[in-house]
Amino acid sequence: MVRILAVVALVWLALMPPLFTGGTCTAEFDHEAAQLAANQKSLATPALAQAYWGSRQVPISVVSAEQCRRAKPRFIDVCGSGVLVHAVVPVHDRICRFYRDDGIRVQLQYDNRDRLARMVTEMNPFRSLPLPFGITLHWAR
To answer: Of 19, 85, 94, 128, which has the most beta carbons under 10 Å away?
Structure first.
């Protein structure tokens, strides 16, 4: 019986950290999205985007329109008319990285004239558990 209680206690302790993030995971995502919006001129062309991500030491992958049409990467829905620059910004908070997502994915889609046509920023969503007493527990918020 003591072993069962010890196992339950260990599982409960492992599940507790994401309940007490206080919104840091979402704040980190929002900060990255705001930083990208503020630096949109630095992302206006694929060459500028490569320099921007290089200065931040964030690894990127560049997919040409031809490469996309031949073998569409699984992280995009539709190939565009121009180059796609895909970056994954590492999440700094350990709890967020372990329980929610280890990276913030950024897709920069350019048109055939190398102008930024679309910017998509993604991170796994946090989960919520509404309880009957009017309290909601947020997991890795």
So the answer is: 85
Q: Count Cα neighbours of 53 within 13 Å in the Cβ-side half-sphere.
A: 22
**How many other CB atoms sit within 10 Å of the CB of residue 95?**
16
30 membership: H or E segment, kind and range? helix 24-38
Quick one: average pLDDT of 8-21? 70
pTM of the model: 0.80
Six-digit token string for 132: 């009957």
pLDDT at 120 over 70: yes
Average pLDDT of the chain to the nearest whole number: 88
- Residues 29 and 125 sit within 8 Å (Cβ to Cβ): no
pLDDT of residue 15: 65
Q: Which residues pair with 138 in a beta bridge?
A: 128
* 102 three-class SS: coil
Residue with tokens 């829905």: 77
DSSP tag of 39: T
